[in-house]
């Protein structure tokens, strides 16, 4: 018996004069107690399906057609009074970013209690007891029920979100990227909790995600969406190994896993799948030390207590020593807050160390003469390709700026060089006069890479360069970086939280935790024979 | 929360001390001689000197400032023009030789008027301004939204003296809806108190409401799309309840801050409004004192206005901290 029944669902958003169809004729059923993964990349319409099932679209700007029934009740076109009896009671939702989705003004206990009171008509005391019990069930002790969301960690906040959604024992739970913002270990814990509660209560779960790994871990069946349509629907085990649709195959193969042969070209959605992984190009043996930090400590001023005159500093990096050799790629792995980005910023000369030495090419980077050279020889590729390109400047202006600063080329020569760089990163000369908003996320990241390559740097620092991208685009950008690395003999410092990507891309790996390097060494050694417990833990948590 | 409170009070005290020093400096920056004014036009040089001595004006500046501060805290005795002692109880703001009474008493006599005008005007501002903003945001893009925006814009673009006289003509002289504006103590006759102040309340409220309407509208629109509002709807709350409980709360902080400033300004005296409607409040007192070169009263009213702003801004900060638990820890 199906508890959620979606038939010919079409959702379009009215724009100025035109409308965009986000979901185009989607049909599926969710049986009682079933866990189904709805997988797709950004813009595929997967989240829109979830919101439509809750009836949460703004009727003024959205046209929803087709039929969605929850336990027999029609959602599409239903008046708000009907939807209100469904929402939170029979169909509930867990949102991606729990910090944004939970009210900052109310205690977590009050938020769970409210969800219960709306539908049960219970008194305040009874609802509070129910909320505390529910929080306890998701692993939040009763003593913390009176705390506010900002006093919890990301994983704990997501637990609160889950408690809020499940307190009324709904038939259907829609979980929209419930673990995307979390570190791998926390992600695993939250997924385990969801599965546990799901089994305990027989709730049907629609897990909306871009992450095939999450689906493989939790869902018996998966639906693959692309451009508003379901391209494939079947048991997870079958789709993972033997998908019929080429898009599904590409989506599954695009993300490197801990079993992928390192350094091979990754299959992408738009490129025809190559007959097999291309042979690994012979990576030149690493040369002399190019950049080095020794006993690096970075502290940030902390909050000053009322009675003390001095603020207790917060150490982000505590005594780290690292080397990047000529021609090698060093991967810096860690969870959020481990100090990996701060360390990278020190390498780039963007963050002054509190203590320790920083050398580039054998010279202390604190020297004024070295700093000028450093701004040319070390270039950065950033995480967010939307935020890191100035929207008011053309691609030519963006890519030629470092040339204007660091070379004597005239305008014509700079343009020629920029065109050459665009070709190198897989774009074309005619893109020079366009603005960043005309490009997709992956193309923007290519522009960012072209900009970084412009002054012919000797070291490129890439801080999570692919983590904001969809898996298929991520594969393209990783392939590009690998090509460029071989072609130009680049040295890279590659910062990432993603173990599989680091394993795939890097020659040497350093694992950071709480400001310390807990383990470092050649890739195979770290991944195959990890010495530190923490590395083993991370590897075990990776999906 | 306690630590936050203590820090805020300490800050407020520091600001007040600085303003007191600057206001006191007025005595010396002003081109007129307080002793000459106090003594009157018929005094000869020797008499003025005697008055200056009895007023303590021949003392060093710092000594006088210290006396003034001491008076603020613990009260002091001030010499009248003829040298007879006048007891000035704490907080002593000095003695007006024009009004022949301690400045604090002069302010105290008129403060009920200012308090009544300001409190009523604030209510009108909140109801009209925030109410209009809230409704506009919920009805965005509709005729209601545009009408409310236009209506509040009219308020912002007219001057108090024009609107005051125009409304007085319409509501008092032409239609008899309201009595001539005037002051009746609340304790004597609450109905007459309200009727006499209705016009100043409307005018002050209407003129100041536009800023609040615009700010609350844009704040509401911004907050409406916050994740927690969607979560509230997802729990099954109706739109109005979700917006009242979550959107309004999220939108409130800047409004409360602005309201604190507005309240501070109003409780310091509504200079133009009181003059237009002939109400004898602190604003009128200050205007008269400036015209008559009554320096102790000028300094006293400046201090009152400053105190009022500091007090209400601090209260607004506390209210924001109460509204948003994240602020308490920042």
Description of the molecule:
The complex is a heterodimer of chains A (543) and B (330). Chain A is of the alpha/beta class and 543 residues long. Chain A has two domains: 2-254, 3-Layer(aba) Sandwich (Rossmann fold), CATH 3.40.50.300; 289-300 and 314-541, P-loop containing nucleotide triphosphate hydrolases (Rossmann fold), CATH 3.40.50.300. In chain A, 36% of the residues lie in helices and 25% in strands. Chain A contains 19 helices and 20 strands. The two termini of chain A are 31 Å apart. In chain A, 49% of the residues are buried. Chain B is mainly alpha-helical. Chain B has two domains: 2-104, no CATH class; 107-296, Orthogonal Bundle (MetI-like fold). In chain B, 75% of the residues lie in helices and 4% in strands. In chain B, the strands form two sheets. Chain B has a two-stranded antiparallel ribbon. In chain B, strands 3-4 form a two-stranded antiparallel sheet. In chain B, strand 3 and strand 4 (101-102) form a beta hairpin. The longest helix of chain B has 36 residues, at 103-138. Chain B starts with a helix and ends with a helix. The model of chain B has no long low-confidence stretch (mean pLDDT 87). Classes of the chains: A alpha/beta (543), B mainly alpha (330). Chain A binds chain B through residues 54, 56, 80, 84-89, 92-93, 95, 97, 100-105, 114-115, 118-119, 148, 150, 164, 306, and chain B through 3, 6-7, 226-228, 230-239, 246, 249-250, 323-326, 329.
